[in-house]
Amino acid sequence: MQRYYEYRHVVAFEETNLVGNVYYVNYLRWQGRCREMFLRELAPQVIEDLRADLKLFTVQVDCEYFAELEAFDEISVRMRLVDLGQTQIEFAFDYLLLDPAGERLVARGRQRVACMRGPNGRTTPTRVPAPLAQALRPYAAPALVSSDV
Q1: Cα separations (Å) of 148 from 4, 49, 133, 145?
Q2: 74 belongs to a structural domain
């Protein structure tokens, strides 16, 4: 059973530096893009909630790099659920280079997100919305699948 959500991307020139490899901040952007496409595809009702007063704040992010990427490389960013708390979610991301010879892991990242509500400057933590928790369940580690969220 597939236990990750996949976002595919082709690296553009604008995502590279003068040396020709991908600038590190783009890996973090791709994490966000993967998360957004997940919401668009599998939890669209959460998008309406975001247009109201729900906020998803990234509170921690990291990425470890194993190999370089260049313009026109095709990659797969694979997102998995690591932790689903009452008000926070932690994701893991694998970045794989896709080519005819197969897949190669080029980076690995993590991201912790806090769910908040309220006006800017006075936001308070809120529970992870039920539609989001339900959409995430298929991508959870086996120990999380049986938890009551």
Answers
A1: 20, 22, 10, 8
A2: yes
